[in-house]
Write a structure and sequence with these properties.
This protein has 2 domains: about 15-55; about 70-300, MetI-like (MetI-like fold). It is about 65% helix and about 0% strand. It contains 15 helices and no strands. Residues about 300 have low confidence and may be disordered.
């Protein structure tokens, strides 16, 4: 009895294989170029912050300093101004993010229960209206003044407590959760808060991580509210101190290091930039994996 052999698989044409290889190479080169363009400014700033006066005196600054030194960082951190500003920014960012997440998630959950919560549709329309219309600087300043929050950290948190965009994203994600899960929890005797805490929030970790990062980056990067509402320089966050170093050229740390040779102004400015951006850069990779799942699931209705 003769054995039947399987027909040979049709081989792909050579030109198709060459085209696929060429496409892969093009993608790799394109991504490499984009990554290089994005990393070059940061590496250049880091190189300048580690350079000496002799390195800066040359015609150009290389990405790898010839005589690397941490003198600029020592000078900045020894003064106490930057350290205090970093502590202020960390506290404002952490507290503001936590409070904003609590307010955003609870309001978003209430807006998904249009039948159980009277007036929720009207509130949703008011929230969406803030995406189109917003008050100017003077009305916001007068509001903060009448609330008695001038020269206080509350002025950095309360005006941007809830973002309408983040609220819409979280609400849409909550609406995609099957009603059968919440109905089963209610049949078992769970109340609204228990359903929200034990069912809704655990299933929404992706979108919550993304929205928390949005709030954190916004609070960490904000300097305009501090410039308007804070008159006490000891309460300034790191971004406002960075503004003094970079834009106005004020070397605050140098004034507290009498008798020691000061590093070049350019290295001090770039060192403050690195210190101000490093925390967000370190946190971002841990939350990056949630971006695709969180944003897409919250923006597209299933």
């Amino acid at each position: 009895m003769a054995l039947r052999t399987a027909p040979p698989r049709a081989s792909r044409p050579i030109w198709i294989e060459k085209a696929s290889v060429g496409t892969s190479i093009t993608k790799v080169v394109t991504i490499a170029v984009i990554v290089g363009v994005m990393l070059f400014p940061f590496l250049y700033v880091l190189s300048v912050s580690l350079s000496t006066q002799a390195d800066l005196a040359g015609s150009s600054v290389t990405l790898i300093p010839k005589h690397p030194t941490l003198e600029a960082y020592r000078q900045i951190l020894a003064g106490g101004v930057v350290t205090r500003a970093l502590l202020v920014s960390v506290c404002v960012t952490v507290v503001g993010t936590v409070v904003s997440m609590v307010m955003t998630t609870t309001l978003a959950y209430g807006l998904t229960r249009t039948r159980q919560v009277p007036g929720s549709r009207l509130v949703l329309l008011m929230v969406l209206g803030t995406l189109l219309f917003s008050a100017g600087i003077i009305p916001n300043y007068l509001l903060v003044r009448y609330l008695g929050m001038l020269n206080s950290y509350g002025a950095l948190i309360v005006p941007g407590l809830i973002s309408a965009f983040n609220l819409v994203v979280v609400r849409q994600f909550f609406m995609n959760i099957p009603d059968e899960l919440t109905d089963a929890a209610r049949i078992d005797g769970a109340g609204p808060f228990q359903v929200f805490w034990h069912i809704i929030l655990p299933l929404s970790k992706a979108v919550l991580a993304v929205v928390a990062l949005f709030y954190g980056v916004a609070l960490w990067s904000d300097f305009f509210n501090a410039l308007i509402y804070l008159n006490d320089t000891t309460k300034w966050p790191i971004q406002l101190v960075l503004r003094l170093f970079v834009l106005q050229g004020q070397n605050i740390a140098q004034s507290q290091q009498v008798g020691q040779p000061a590093p070049p102004a350019e290295t001090v400015q770039m060192a403050v930039v690195i210190i101000a951006t490093a925390p967000i850069i370190l946190v971002y990779p841990f939350l990056q994996k949630y971006f695709t799942q969180g944003v897409l699931s919250g923006a597209v209705k299933g």
